[in-house]
Design goal:
By secondary structure, the protein is of the alpha/beta class. It has one domain: Rossmann fold. The chain starts with a strand and ends in a 13-residue tail after the last helix.
């Protein structure tokens, strides 16, 4: 199939390009390269590449594709707080515009990278896809509003699906350490302590970034009627963890590291445990390749192999917010998206 992937140079996108190409698909990537120079390891290039803001994509750019996989975004909550207008402009307005163009260009399938963070401060545990949204950030609001608007475009010719991904972790050639697991493990290795900003009790659904990429491939290859206009949580019931469980795993890998509770919990009220039954009902063949333990061991070995240091931990390279602060000029636009 001919696949158009936005955000292909990101943490998840770097895996996705490789998986799609190895499955025999032809990949066109579109990315603004906001994290140019931040790669940890080399990764394969797509067959064709557009270095473009998704807000500048035209209908012509999208003609002839079988599927658009839309991952490009300002990709986390604190970044959304840095500049909510940019998050709304790219993540919501840019995404809705892209979906409309894809439909107009005759692209039959559209897969959107949504997030379990739309459940935000969960009012109950084991949230399924019917749970009330409780977004607590511009990032999470942007995902909710995009889902609603793009879902309204669904018809016989245009089939969107919404992959509500759990929080990613694990090795990628485009490593990020601003995600809870990678951060705690990186801190233990670089600094010798495991710093937990809450009391350790908040629940998080976790998934290896490569398993998210595998889910995108599985959705594209699934029969249309199975996934048509469906929002689906991407993860596994047994891969919900409390932050203190993650810290315990980190300590198993780095026994000398001390667990420190900093108690800055006020800044992050997110707490959600998620139910993933729908994914396995719709796609019974799909299984995660990684458990948290296996993914952490792999990342631990990668950190050691790369000599991950204090400089790496405190620098800009692996933290999206820090890099983006210096590159806001690339995404600030004078005019709102039409
Ligand atoms: N990482 C997670 O834990 C997680 C969890 C749930 C959902 N998601 C979603 O998955 C997607 C990918 O996440 P990621 O972790 O790979 O993020 P990332 O920040 O590593 O990658 C995002 C990519 O999008 C590109 N990009 C950003 N704005 C752009 C624009 N206007 N035009 C073109 N390219 C642009 C960046 O250059 C970058 O390469 C995002 O939509 C994110 O919201 C991620």
């Amino acid at each position: 199939m001919k696949v158009f992937v936005t955000g292909h140079k990101g943490y998840i996108g770097a895996h996705l390009v490789e998986l799609l190409q190895s499955a025999g698909h032809e990949v066109t990537g579109c990315d603004l390269d906001l994290f140019e120079g931040c790669a940890w390891e080399p990764f394969p290039s797509p067959d064709h590449e557009l270095n473009k803001d998704i807000r500048d994509i035209s209908e012509d750019d999208l003609r002839g594709f079988d599927c658009v996989m839309h991952l490009a975004a300002i990709s986390n909550d604190p970044m959304g707080d840095l500049n909510p207008e940019i998050t709304y402009s790219i993540n919501r307005d840019g995404s809705i515009r892209l979906a409309k163009l894809a439909k107009a260009a005759g692209v039959p399938r559209f897969l959107f990278a949504s997030s379990c963070s739309i459940y935000g401060k969960g009012e109950k545990l084991d949230l399924d896809e019917t749970a009330v949204f409780n977004p607590v950030s511009a990032y999470a609001f942007s995902k909710v509003e995009t889902e609603e608007a793009v879902s309204a475009l669904a018809d016989d010719s245009f089939s969107p699906s919404f992959l509500r991904n759990a929080t990613a972790y694990g090795h990628s050639p485009m490593l990020r350490i601003d995600l809870v697991v990678n951060n705690l493990l990186g801190c233990a290795i670089a600094r010798g302590d495991i710093r937990i900003m809450s009391d350790g009790s908040p629940w998080r659904p976790l998934i290896h970034c490569r398993d998210i990429a595998r889910a995108f491939v599985a959705f594209m290859e699934a029969p249309r009627d199975v996934v048509h206009n469906q929002a689906v949580n991407i993860g596994a019931n047994e891969e919900n963890y409390q932050v203190k469980d993650v810290a315990d795993y980190v300590q198993e890998l780095v026994p000398d590291a001390k667990i420190v509770y900093t108690g800055e919990v006020g800044a992050d009220p997110r707490n959600y445990r998620v139910n993933f039954d729908k994914l396995y009902t719709l796609l019974p063949e799909f299984k995660l390749q990684y458990t948290l333990k296996a993914g952490m061991e792999e990342l631990y070995n990668k950190y050691r192999e790369h000599g991950f240091s204090e400089e790496d931990f405190s620098g800009d390279q692996f933290v999206r917010l820090r890099t983006l602060r210096h590159r806001l000029d690339r995404i600030e636009k004078a005019e709102p998206v039409a």
